[in-house]
Amino acid sequence: MSKTPMTLPRRLGLLFELPTLCIIIVTMVALSLPLVVALRGWQGWSQTIASPSVTRRVAGPLGKPTALIHIGPPKTGTTYIQRVLLAYRAKLLGMNMVYYVPPVEGRHPEAHHFLLHPERDETAMTAFKDKLSEAVAKGQHVIVSSEALSLMSPKLMSSLKSLFPKFNIKVVLTHRPFLGREWSQYKQHLSQHNPPQIGVSFAEFYGKVSRSETDGTGFCGRVASKYIQEFGRDSVFILDFLGAQNDGDIVNMLLSAVGLPTFEEPLEQVHLGPGLASDQVVYFQMWYLLGEYMREHHHCKLEAPPRQELVHKVDAMFKHHTMPKKCLDMEPMKKYALKMDANFRVAFGDRILHFRPDLSDNETTHFKQICELDHQIVRMDWNDAFEKHAETLLSNSCQKQ
């Protein structure tokens, strides 16, 4: 069958229809483009954050750089994060990010602790505000990090928020399994010779923490709640401590949580001093009880030597094997900690990145046995042993009160 030839009028009609169709398509695309840009954000449009349990879009208001405010809390890798950020300041600047800590006499040079007491450090605050203005002018993101920010009152949080009116604020905190964090917190206080604040034994400390809980989500939960109330739920991001470490360097996990560029791994190692080892706890507990005796009976405040020297000194005076010890019943502690972690996940599961409850529960379930000094026996029976060393201590380790 032969095809019917296309007539001249039909050919002329197609010539007019094709340009008209093209114009309609181009017009539709042009009209929809601003809407797409507005929905997805201007800076890079948006970035996807993926974790084992959540994929979240992070997009800021049009034209605003990001202010990443890392608030700790303590014992969640904060010192490591801050020292890496400080060491990588030049690289961060090349990636359009600013990590600036103004010099504050007698304070940590790597962290923004001065923000907790801005009235004490007016010079630092002025320098910091100037740097924020400069960052805004250059379209740079800024990073702030201080575990002290987890202690802020609502009034101070409002003041903190007011520092960043031209930034898209993203708050990041890290959740560490309850039992592991409390044990680490106790050891730090003990190494800093602060037992009156926490109780001499870990059993006493853990009991105080448990009795002070009101909402069942722990200190991290209370911090998350108050920041969500001030900054909004969508502006608060929570890193799972073990999950983030499992997925890469925690500094990169912090940056990626709010859609900022990350470093190539592995990162260069930064120096961190060793924390108090678990097997050193009994020596520091004994030193505290010895100091308690010297204050009461000789009006003497013991001056603590450096950590390893203290261990050797206590061992030389009393011998490790003679010091009475008590191994704690770990099962009630573990059960309570697992409940606290589960409550936290229920309350904030939609905000958690690198979510690995299996790692958290496994660490708590298999937490090592804690054996510490039996301070009740020491207080009752060791006065004679303490008095034997009193004369020597008065001559070389005491500050008379």
Characterise this structure.
Helices cover 53% and strands 12% of the residues. The chain has 18 helices and 12 strands. The strands form 4 sheets. The protein has a 6-stranded parallel β-sheet with strand order 4-5-3-6-7-10, sandwiched between helices. The protein has a two-stranded antiparallel sheet with strand order 1-2. The chain is globular, with a radius of gyration of 29 Å. It has helices at residues 8-40, 78-87, 89-94, 122-138, 154-162, 178-191, 195-198, 202-212, 218-231, 241-247, 250-257, 281-298, 307-318, 330-348, 357-365, 375-381, 383-388, 390-396; strands spanning 47-50, 55-58, 66-70, 97-98, 141-145, 168-175, 236-240, 300-302, 325-327, 352-353, 371-373, 398-400. It is α/β, with parallel strands linked by helices and 401 residues long. Helix 5 (154-162) packs across helix 9 (218-231) and helix 12 (281-298) crosses helix 13. Helix 4 (122-138) links the parallel strand 4 and strand 5. Keywords: Membrane, Transmembrane, Transmembrane helix. This is Sulfotransferase domain-containing protein.
Main features:
18 helices; P-loop_NTPase; membrane; 6-stranded parallel β-sheet; 401 residues; alpha/beta
